[in-house]
Amino acid sequence: MDKDMNYGSDYKYIPATSVGSGVGIQVLPDLFCHTVQIVNINLVGNPETKEFVLVDTGMPDSANEIISVTEERFGANSRPKAIILTHGHFDHVGAIIDLVKHWEVPVYAHELEMPFLTGQRSYPEPDPTVEGGMISKMSPMFPNEPIDLGNNVEKLPSDGTVPHMPDFRWIHTPGHAPGHVSLFREKDRALIAGDAFITVKQEYLYKVLTQEQEISGPPRYLTTDWKAAKESVIKLEALKPTVAVTGHGLPMSGELLTSSLQKLVKEFDRIAVPDYGKYVDKNIH
Ligand SMILES: [Zn+2]
Ligand SMILES: [Zn+2]
Predict the structure, then answer these.
(1) CA 20 to 30 Å from 124, out of 114, 118, 178, 201?
(2) What is the domain partition of the chain in residue ranges?
(3) In angstroms, rounded to a whole number, what is the distance separating the alpha carbons of residues 24 and 35?
(4) Any idea which of 67-71, 97-101, 140-144, 261-265 has the lowest mean pLDDT?
C-alpha cells in the first residue's frame, strides 16, 4: 500500500523548539494533546477501549516520537483506527508517511486539501515579509512541496461525520488552508481547532519558546485568505466550545476560552490580520 508515497524533495527536519516539546497533556479522559517541537498532535479515544484516532502528525522526522507516545498511552503495538488531518501544512503532516507505513491505517482530510496531499499542487509560498516575528522570517526554509500519499488518503464523508470519531463532526474552517477542518463534539463542546485559531503567537520565536498563552488568529506566514479565516473563527466561536486544543499553543478552556474567542471575533482585524504582507488586502476587511 505504500509504494507510491513520498514527501516533497524539500522535506527536512526543522530545528525549532518550545518548552512544551515532548510534553503531553490529558485534556479530557479521551483527549490527549502532545507537543512535537512547536506543533500539537492529538490522540482521541479512551485508553481503556484502545479505540482511538490520531489527529495531525507533527513535524518532519517525528514518527518515532509519535509512535512511542501512542504506545505509552494505549499499550505496546497499539495503532489508531485512522489518521485525521486538520490540513496538510508541513508541520501537520511531518511524520505521516512513516506512520502510514508503520500502522497501515487510512488517512482522512477535506477534499479541498487533496491536491496538497497527493503531490498535485504546492501551497502558496509562506510569506517572510508578513508583519511580525522571527518565525515568519524563517518560513521560507519550511518544506512547501506537496507530499504524495497516493491512494492512502480519503475524503472526509460529506455528511459531516468523522470516521472512527463517532461523537465528533468536522466543520469546514478555511482561510489558513482551503480545506482546513476543525472537529467538534456537541455533548461536551470539545473542539479540536487545528490552526483556525491558536493559543500562542506563532510568529514570534520567544513566544513559541515560552508557550505564553494568548489567543491568536491562524499562523500569519501561511494564511492566505484572511476573509475566510475570519468567518471560520466566527463559526467556531458560535459553537461556544468549553475546551479547545489548537495546532499550536496550550489547550484552553472555560471562561478564558469563552472570553478569548469573543475578543478574537470582535477584534479579529487588529489581533489576527497582519498590517502588511503579500496575502493581506486591508480593503476587504
Ligand atoms: Zn497550518
Ligand atoms: Zn500549524
Answers:
(1) 201
(2) 24-156+168-280
(3) 6
(4) 140-144
Once rounded to an integer, what is the mean pLDDT over residues 179-188? 98
- What is the rounded end-to-end Cα distance, in angstroms, of the chain? 46
Given a cut of 80, whether residue 269 has pLDDT beyond it is yes
Helix (H/G/I), strand (E/B), else coil: 23: coil
CA dist 281 and 244 (Å) reads 29
Please check the confidence at residue 281 and state whether its pLDDT lies above 90: no
* CATH class of the structural domain 24-156+168-280: alpha beta
All residues with CB under 5 Å from ion ligand 1: 89, 195
Nearest-ligand number for the alpha carbon of 89? 1
Q: What are the tens digits of pLDDT across the range 222-255? A: 999 999 999 999 999 999 999 999 999 999 999 9
Cell, residue 21: 516539546
Residues 120-158: pLDDT tens digits?
999 999 999 999 899 999 999 999 999 999 999 999 999
Residue 284 has pLDDT above 60, yes or no: no
Ligand with minimal distance to 135 CA = 2
Q: Which ligand is nearest to the CA of 175?
A: 1
pLDDT at 197: 98
The bound ligand whose nearest atom lies closest to the alpha carbon of 229 is: 1
Whole-number Cα distances in Å, 66 to 35, 60, 86, 122, 219? 10, 11, 17, 25, 23
Cα 195 to averaged position of ligand 1 atoms, centre (Å): 5
Half-sphere exposure of 26 (CA within 13 A, CB side): 9
Residues in the chain: 285
Q: How many CA atoms lie within 13 A of 251 on its CB side?
A: 23
